[in-house]
């Protein structure tokens, strides 16, 4: 009977929801502050944010060719 | 009928510690299946409401409000430094090698190519037995690549130093799904691969034996993308699917530990914030969103009225301040993650941007497109 399969499936849904409803959460203000803190702390080490000089940037170094 | 109900309840007696309802009492009653389903449905609705209420209680501020005091970003000029040409059809996926210079890409024409992005040379090429190779990944050691697509499999190819060697000969089939492979990623070593599939599941595989180590069930439709948490944050990963849900999973137990359903269409791409405390998503609903795992909710939406095409691929810069999104309108939008504003729009591709990854050292990012090319920019 397919209804017993539905009962099993529904129980799993209920159990999963119960689990998710009971997890610990923090306030958005606290979570947001920590996301921001991480950005600020790591800003100087972010080459796409700060830009990298031509001399150290591997995609910009020009190779010099010499003809012998 | 009655006997079947007993058997169903028995399976749950072992979890009595977690259950609220009086199991013994229910088992003693003559309960008809339709009554049980109705009860479970109303309990499930009540729990969903409770979940939203719990999340709403902690929603005391918006991320961009907290970020008001942060200095705004200046003008960004990002130029294409390399264009990788060689695929004969749409580029569907790409991944960086840990050496920060090699790239693997896969295409609709069945080809998987390994490039040296500095020189634009093609170092290896493999022809897959199927078209639409939707997923590819570089192994952490740099010694192998994994790929798959319409063949429903994920295969690993060891990269030979001998350029003349036929890579296809050493191919190892690792994962088997019952529908297309949408994404794959090695875990912290070359030994395990995580896959997602059109069959609605994700799975963790042992590369050497091809054994299924764990499967992840919970999506109600095709799973389109996945991303592993940064190694410091433990054994979790996030997946996104056509059911509009993003699920966070415990890799060891197979349990879905958090689920987010705020997108209005398929989620094409998910990527963890570098700290591991949040993840971004890109969707066919033309928005990218940020979900914080500790607050257990969406904390930002990156959208504009002028952006009406889906976001196919997202990735963060190293500090997490920038979110790059590749879109189906051929552009890449760069977002200020904290303030929620767009800081740059990048043109150049002549068809949909299908894949986008920032390099491992954060100095550049690469995008792949249906225009058959890949572009490296910084």
TrEMBL record, chain A:
It is a lipid-anchor. One of its GO terms (biological process) is G protein-coupled receptor signaling pathway. Its main location: membrane. Residues 3-68 form the G protein gamma domain. It is found in: Cell membrane. GO terms for cellular component: heterotrimeric G-protein complex. Keywords: Cell membrane, Lipoprotein, Membrane, Methylation, Prenylation, Transducer. One of its GO terms (molecular function) is G-protein beta-subunit binding. InterPro entries: G-protein_gamma, G-protein_gamma-like_dom, GGL_sf. Guanine nucleotide-binding proteins (G proteins) are involved as a modulator or transducer in various transmembrane signaling systems. The beta and gamma chains are required for the GTPase activity, for replacement of GDP by GTP, and for G protein-effector interaction. G proteins are composed of 3 units; alpha, beta and gamma. Belongs to the G protein gamma family. This is Guanine nucleotide-binding protein subunit gamma.
UniProtKB/TrEMBL annotation, chain B:
It comes from Pygocentrus nattereri. It holds the Pfam family WD40_Gbeta. It comes from the Eukaryota. This is Guanine nucleotide binding protein (G protein), beta 5a. WD repeats lie at residues 84-125, 174-215, 216-259, 260-301, 313-345, 346-378. CDD domains: WD40. GO terms for biological process: signal transduction. Residues 37-64 form a coiled coil. PANTHER family: GUANINE NUCLEOTIDE-BINDING PROTEIN BETA G PROTEIN BETA.
